[in-house]
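Input sequence (236 aa), recorded before submission:
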Amino acid sequence: MATPVCSVKNLRVKYGLRVPVEDVSFEIEPGEGLALLGMNGAGKSSIVRTLLGIMAVRTGQVSVLGAVDVRSRLGEIGYCPEDAAPPEFLTVAEYMGFLARVRIAAPEERKSAVDDVLRVFELPGERRIIELSKGMTRRVVLAQSFLGNPRFVVLDEPLNGLDPIMIAGLRERINRFREQGGAVLYSSHLLTEAESCCSHAVILNNGRVAEAGKITGFVSKYGSLENAFRKLVSPS
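Predicted structure, token format:
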């Protein structure tokens, strides 16, 4: 059995008296895409912050790419936050070049990595970010999450501001990434898209795992991932 790219065991997150995450466990193996689903406030953001090392693990165990100290693996992790504002005064190529210097150790590999991500996401490298539309700026944020051949990509509401053509392109990019052995954590409210580009799902209800497993299992049992969500999740 392959070593999991991401492993979460009995995670509990507490803010003061509030406990947004209680006893959550799941694993993501190479080539898998896991849809992390739940209503607003279900604990998705707290789990993402923990996986990225932004939030310390107090109760439970979390490892990413074999490391308990997730920060030691950040160069191999791509992250698309729900809300992001790239520096507007830079051109797209300058922004990607800056990130490449941070993420890619070998100088000779940086330019080819930037050229590749600009080509794959069809981005105008010479244009300043301030000149871009909302959808194109969102595409820049998505593109940077795949820069430098990451092994694990975390996508938090990645479809915000994307038109249908861009959404289809991202779906294809995720599926190619998984075919090459990459692993994806995909947090979204658009369940049909999650169903189309992920292999597994964890449905959260009030901070706990309501049900987890292969998406084919959810479809077999409930008819669709959306039906499963409606059945398992209580409105807050």
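Checked by second reader. Residues 103 and 166 are 25 Å apart (CA to CA).
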